[in-house]
Design a protein that fits this description.
Elements lengths: L5 H8 L5 H7 L1 H16 L5 H23 L3 H30 L10 H11 E3 L2 E2 L4 H8 L8 H6 L6 E2 L1 H11 L4 E3 L6 H7 L5 E5 L14 E2 L2 H8 L3 E5 L9 H4 L6 E7 L8 H4 L5 E5 L1 H5 L1 E2 L5 E8 L3
Parallel strand pairs: 4-5, 4-7, 5-6, 7-8
Antiparallel strand pairs: 1-2, 3-10, 8-11, 9-11
Helix pairs in contact: 1-5, 3-5, 4-5
Protein name: SAM-dependent methyltransferase
Organism: Paenibacillus selenitireducens
GO molecular function: methyltransferase activity
Length: 314
């Protein structure tokens, strides 16, 4: 059994150590994960990805609770911290697998040809990987000429990008928000809030910075977990784009009395985005998939979904 210093434990719990660094520091846990994944595969589980996500998110959540309640007790940390490390390894390995499988070139450095790369850079990005609001008309026109459509999202996923926002979507969201105080949780690089501020929306971006190994957080994204941010700002509207599947933070939105409207941008697949257990259990909010808003997410997919939760008036 490994012993961890309190400082190391705090950094791992706060996701302040990258997965790549953890792999170097604790290779034995990577080997354990690989053995466990092989065992899961051999069970012929019909939905293997769901099974992996369920297994490791549950074990990490339980371990986090045990450690938190113990006040970083040395024995408890040594017993349960490896479960959190292993969960991060497992999700990381799934992400790498997704990139390889989606690209269909797992043994090569995947990249766009000059034609695709030039068009997509001008359509989707201001510079580098800084996204811009996308013209829906231009996108629809040029998208049909892109040869390797299937590698776009796996490539940008590595930069913490899971969708692109059309100008039309930003306009629609601005109309929904109006003059209300708005908070974005799990905001990542803050792109959505940045676009809404461009429409003069009163919106603030927050994130717990747990994805620093992928995302470069700009200064305007306040470092705060969702629970504390909701308590601090008491927003009327809350946004979340691509929330982690089976996350532990969306439930706090529905417990915040000031919130009248919650907008989730994600997918219809619970294995990819969202805390569907909470979605399906809330009784003080109505829930709908807005088909029009979903159609304004890019790239287009039948799996895209924008959920609107409205507080039921008493």
């Amino acid at each position: 059994m490994r012993n961890f210093t309190k400082d190391t434990a705090k950094k791992i719990l706060a996701n302040e150590i990258s997965v790549e660094a953890l792999l170097q520091l604790y290779p034995e846990y990577k080997d354990e994960v690989l053995k466990e994944l092989r065992a899961l595969k051999n069970t012929h589980e019909s939905n293997l990805i769901d099974a992996i996500i369920n297994k490791y998110t549950a074990s990490a959540k339980n371990a986090g609770n045990k450690i938190s309640k113990s006040g970083l007790n040395e024995k408890t940390v040594s017993t349960f911290l490896p479960e959190i490390i292993k969960a991060r390894f497992a999700i990381y390995l799934l992400e790498q697998l997704n990139v390889a499988v989606s690209s269909k070139e797992p043994t090569k450095n995947v990249r766009f040809n000059l034609w695709d790369g030039t068009i997509l850079q001008k359509l989707l990005f201001k510079q580098g990987f800084e996204r811009k609001p996308v013209s829906l008309g231009l996108f629809k026109f040029f998208w049909r000429f892109i040869v390797n459509k299937q590698i776009l999202m796996p490539l940008v996923n590595k930069k913490g990008i899971y969708c692109f926002y059309s100008k039309a979507l930003i306009k629609e969201l601005s109309s929904l928000i109006g003059d209300k105080k708005c908070l974005e949780i799990a905001a990542g690089d803050g792109t959505l809030t940045r676009f809404l501020k461009g429409e003069q929306m009163n919106c603030l971006a927050t994130d717990d910075y747990s994805w620093e190994h992928y995302i470069k957080y700009p200064g305007f994204v306040e470092k705060a977990d969702a629970k504390n941010a909701l308590h601090k700002y008491n927003p009327e509207v809350v946004l979340c784009s691509w929330p982690v599947p089976k996350n532990s933070y969306e439930k706090h939105v529905f417990k915040t009395n000031s919130v009248d409207l919650y907008i989730v941008i994600g997918t219809k697949n619970p294995a990819i985005t969202g805390d569907f257990d909470t979605y399906n259990s809330v009784d003080k909010f109505t829930m709908e998939i807005n088909d029009r808003l979903s159609s304004l997410l890019l790239p287009p997919s039948e799996d895209n979904a924008v959920y609107i939760f409205r507080r039921v008036k008493q």
